[in-house]
Structure formats: C-alpha cells, structure tokens
Amino acid sequence: MSPQSEGIPVPVLVPGWHGSGTGHWQAIWRSEHPDWRRVEQRDWITPNCGDWVGALDQAVEECPGRVMIVAHSLGCVAFVHWASFARERLRRKVDGALLVAPADVERESVPRELRGFAPIPKCRIPVPTLVIASENDPCMSFPMARSLAARWNSDLVNAGAAGHINVASGHGPWPAGKILLRGFLRDLAAPVLETSRKLRPQSSRLGCNPGALTS
Q1: Around 157, how many Cα atoms within 13 Å sit in the side-chain half-sphere?
Q2: CATH code for position 128
Q3: Where in the sequence is the domain holding 105, given as residue range(s)?
Q4: Element housing 11 (H / E)
C-alpha cells in the first residue's frame, strides 16, 4: 500500500505501552512502508494520558493528508481519548481507526502505570472504527471488548484465541492484520459505507478464521 501514489489515507501507527519494539507487527509494517507515520512518545515506560493524547494530536496535525489510525493496546485507549475531544478540523482528517487488542485500563489487575488512562471513554467514536479483539487476551476480556465496540459504534472482529496480538502471543509480521487493514480501507472508500455499517452485525470475522489471525 502506497498512500501517496494511490490516494489512500496515510496509516499512522499508534503503539502501546513500551512502544512496538523489534519483531512487533507495527515495527515490521513500518519498516516495509517507510512513508507510514508513527506516533512517538516522550516516555514509553511511565505513560501519561495527556502527553500520549497530545502526541497523537500533533501527529495528526503534522500529517499532510488524510489519516488512517492503526493502534495497538494502550494506543487504542489513547486514540479513544483523543477522539472524544479532538478539534473538528483534525477529526475530519481521520478516515478511520483500526483498533487492535485494546487494553482494559479499568480491570482490577491493571498495572499502576496505566491507571491514569481510566476511565475509558464509552461514547460513540465520531469516525469509523474496527476493533480486533481476542478471546484470551490477558489485557481485556472479550465480553468487555464487545461491550466497548458496541458503545463506540465500532465493527468487531473476533480474532479467536490470539492472546494480546503481539510478539509474546506469536504475532510477528501478522499478514492477516494487513488483510484486515486493506479490507477496512476498501470499505471506507465504498460509497455505501454508511448504509452497510448500519446493517452489519456488531460482531464479525470478516471472512477470517481464528487461525488466520494468529499468523
């Protein structure tokens, strides 16, 4: 995918806690597509919600064209916070957001470093979103992910038993994720998007099986 040549939105990668190190699908995708953007944080270890949201706001501001957010884990929560208050001019630049394995910062066992991101905004997100959630994610239960997707008015993909969809769960390049991203971009470009979003069920595998998503 070459955003500049094909006139599609530029993917902006939003990593989670500790960033996306070597071997993470976000890092691999960025190395394969140097024209994609990445949100950088001043402090990846002891994150501050306001700082993270501010860095995302700056990244969207600096992007010359339209944007597709591709977030993982705590990055998903940062995006939802951003979307709940972002300036209309910047929100209009964001065509959509792929939210992979959002982190539940309200769960009892959440690390204290992440508690400042709670509560998670639970209002409708003003841009199209696709949530990819796992049935055995240690950072968020699938029922919680399904509930949030419904509140956000997001489409939901059940990734099966895929863990946190990161290096630890066996996800390196994650080619199935790229397929989902391409499909989402294709849907966003379709003139019937708004009608189809209203008719589609909230939970969908989009033609994928759990095994495909653990690639």
Answers
A1: 28
A2: 3.40.50.1820
A3: 3-214
A4: strand 10-14
